[in-house]
Amino acid sequence: MKKRSNEPFLWILFSAGGMVAALLLPIHLLLFGFAFALGWLNGPGYDRLIEILRHPLTRVYLLVLCSLPLFHWAHRFRYTLYDGLQIKHLNELINTFCYGGAVVGTAIAVYLLWSIP
Amino acid sequence: MTNRIELSVKRYHPENDQQPWFESYEVPLRKEWVILDALNYIKDHLDGSLTFRWSCRMGVCGSCGMNVNGVPKLACATFLTECAPGPVRVEPLKNFPILRDLVVDISDFLMKLADAKPWIIRKVEKPLEEEYFQTPEQVEAYKQFSMCINCMLCYAACPVYGLDPLFSGPAAIALAQRYNMDSRDQGAGTRMDILSQHEGIWGCTFVGECTKVCPKHVDPAGAIQQYKVTSSIEWLKSLVLPRGAE
Amino acid sequence: MVHPTEYVPKSYHPRVSTYWWLGRWAYAKFILREISSIFVAWIVVTTLLQVRALKAGPAEYAQFQAWLATPWVLVLNAISLFFVVFHAVTWFNLAPKAIVVRMGGKRLPAAAIAASNYAAWVVVSATVLWILLRGTR
Q1: pLDDT by residue (tens digit) across C63-79?
Q2: What are the backbone dihedrals phi and psi of residue B7, each rounded to the nearest 5 degrees, phi first?
Q3: Are the beta carbons of C2 and B97 separated by less than 8 Å?
Q4: CATH number of the domain encompassing residue B236
């Protein structure tokens, strides 16, 4: 049997990332980027945030929140470059930049979330 | 109330022309006329050299696909009154090489359609005396995708098909799915090998224009997304099960 | 493919323009949807910056919050908010196409699946809000 491509795997990551981004990023941005930063709502103080952050579930949640949407971006941006700018002949460079970027972002997230004071 | 309408038709004569050009014709604006009637009027009375494909004139053969005012349409299903007051721009189907006037080279589509193996594939054929029974639910599972008339409007609407020569295209994948979902078929694995190649289905970025222009409401975009899901599940299964265990 | 012969000199197949997506509103909307992924990535970056600031201490976190309130960041985040909501809406509306749910022999209508996506969106968002605003015991 011919070897099947790994596209399904990348598409699964893209879909999972898209769902996470759709469900969670709006409320996160609305609260931290606007409501708390601009004082529309009384946000959690530093102590409360650190307390939440220390919980292992929060760290898993944040890892998912930061990693999967990056893979969603990687896949979508790759195809946007292929079709929008028609530079598919640079596909090796594009793939490295996109998926590599997502891997680097995930690594940074792991590093940041691994040890919390 | 004017009773004439102008058609601006793309012409191309390969023996003379380097580029296509537009020619304008004035045809009667009859309320029951479609673009195809206008083209036949032009050919009969105004310009016998106008070349175009058509057959059934009732939206079932898929021959008369063309771009009308930039949108892929069946010439036999687009009323002149819809396009009034004009001028109506009539061009050959987008994303295909133009052979002559409104006639395009569809061999790429036919090749990709054949790759999808749009026929019942059985591991073991039943003897002729035995029937394949299907419940209404089983027919329902694939019926929508079986409505395709191979008119290629979806290919003209799909930007990825225009950009990526390896992409199989909406109709081919929808027809593959039509057979995959058919309870009589056992060829899903065979089709998966061909279509799940790098670009076969994965080039699709779900623009969704194919479904919008389909005259038979086949919903090829839906078929492709479902095929992606099935393909992903098969990939996950292949991680767990050894390749030979299918 | 048709090869040029004496009787069919050559077919005409121009290269697709780089600006193909400006040709129709549907294509432009599609490209906007795809561009939203860039802003999704930006929001992840700000989240990572937020975690880093939190870890560094109260002073650094206060600085981070002040940075969030600077004009260009606010503008960028406002655009990001628009795009991530645009992504969410288009995502929830399109998801039903990929998932065929059959109940009692008939396929569930797309609107039902989309509605459940939106419901999940509300529930999840409310949960996040509740956890953050719960305050000290």
Answers
A1: 999 999 999 999 999 99
A2: -110, 130
A3: yes
A4: 1.10.1060.10
Instruction: Supply the range of the domain harboring residue B39.
Output: 4-104
How many interface pairs between A and C have CB atoms less than 8 angstroms apart?
Answer: 143
Cβ contact A65:C47 at 8 Å:
yes
Question: % helix / strand / coil in chain A, to the nearest 5?
Answer: 80, 0, 20
Q: Which of B85, B104, B123 is the last residue of a domain?
A: B104
A12 touches C: beta carbon within 8 Å: no
**Is A25 part of the contact surface with chain C (CB cutoff 8 Å)?**
yes
Structural domain ending residue among the three candidates B48, B73, B104: B104
Residues of B in contact with A11 (CB under 8 A): 202, 228, 231-232
Its ipTM equals 0.92
State the sign of the Cα–Cα–Cα–Cα dihedral B26, B27, B28, B34.
negative
* Phi-psi label, residue B175: left if phi above 0, alpha if psi -120 to 50, beta otherwise: alpha
> Does a structural domain hold residue B245?
no
Res C136: pLDDT: 40
| Model pTM score | 0.91
CB atoms within 10 A of CB B4: 10
